[in-house]
């Protein structure tokens, strides 16, 4: 086993050991359902989110509203792409190329039909960053619109980690449609922004073969 492969497996094992240890340490605050669903709720971080939203309230409100058309356009583009791909598959199933794939963490990177393998360490980092910015954006925009945040937390569904924030749903239901849309759009919009920034960093530094081995078929 080479160094890169060893690092990837160590990253994956350490990731899940960390999750198990965290849930065990806070087991009194962990809700469990069906034997495979675990959720930890806390009020820690809520005060920080409120302060961040208050200090830059005008910016965050503007940011949330900008996200609405961006997410709608992206949604329409995705529907168009998937519809076109479905038509191509029906018309020529043997030659149609997949337009989406299942991302699977592995020790090498490559495209294998509809399955895309990525470095385990890359995958772990990507999941953590995505959860943080996605749920964080929902929370900040909710607080900017003066919606009460009840709690925040992390969880595990079988082997799939997730994060969440819990704003007061009753307040959101009574708010304007534009406010609701800005809160809902904040998560995916921030994902787009994060992906764009990371893409720029990759273009600038061009890392090659650091955490994964390239595979060509």
Helical fraction equals 55-70%
Largest sheet: 4 strands, antiparallel
Using the alpha-carbon principal axes, give the shape. Answer: globular
Instruction: Give the integer mean of the pLDDT values.
Output: 82
Unreliable spans are 210-217
How many E strands? 8
Radius of gyration: 20 Å
Task: Give an account of the 3D structure.
- The protein is an alpha/beta fold and 217 residues long.
- Helix content is 59%, strand content 20%.
- The protein contains six helices and eight strands; from the N terminus they run H-E-E-H-H-E-E-E-H-E-E-H-H-E.
- It has helices at 3-25, 46-55, 57-91, 120-144, 169-174, 177-205; strands at residues 30-33, 37-42, 102-106, 108-112, 115-119, 149-157, 160-167, 213-214.
- The strands form two sheets. It has a four-stranded antiparallel sheet with strand order 1-2-6-7. Strands 3-5-4-8 form a four-stranded mixed sheet.
- Strand 4 (108-112) and strand 5 form a beta hairpin.
- Helix 2 (46-55) packs across helix 4, helix 3 crosses helix 6 (177-205) and helix 4 (120-144) runs antiparallel to helix 6 (177-205).
- It is globular and about 50 Å long.
- The relative contact order is 0.16.
- Residues 210-217 have low confidence and may be disordered.
């Amino acid at each position: 086993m080479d160094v890169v492969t060893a690092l990837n497996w160590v990253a994956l094992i350490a990731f899940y050991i960390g999750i198990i240890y965290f849930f065990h340490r806070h087991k009194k605050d962990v809700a469990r359902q069906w034997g495979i669903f675990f959720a930890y709720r806390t009020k820690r971080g809520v005060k920080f989110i409120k302060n961040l939203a208050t200090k830059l309230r005008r910016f965050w409100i503007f940011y949330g509203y900008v996200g609405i058309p961006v997410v709608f356009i992206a949604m329409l583009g995705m529907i168009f792409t998937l519809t076109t791909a479905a038509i191509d598959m029906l018309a020529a199933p043997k030659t149609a190329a997949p337009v989406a794939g299942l991302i699977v963490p592995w020790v090498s990177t490559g495209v294998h039909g509809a399955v895309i393998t990525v470095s385990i360490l890359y995958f772990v980092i990507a999941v953590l960053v995505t959860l943080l910015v996605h749920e964080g954006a929902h929370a900040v925009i909710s607080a900017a619109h003066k919606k009460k945040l009840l709690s925040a937390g992390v969880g595990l569904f079988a082997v799939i980690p997730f994060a969440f924030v819990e704003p007061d749903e009753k307040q959101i239901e009574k708010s304007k449609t534009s406010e609701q849309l800005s809160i809902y759009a904040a998560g995916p919009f921030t994902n787009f922004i994060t992906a764009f920034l990371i893409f720029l960093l990759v273009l600038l530094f061009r890392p090659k073969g650091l955490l994964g081995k390239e595979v060509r078929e």
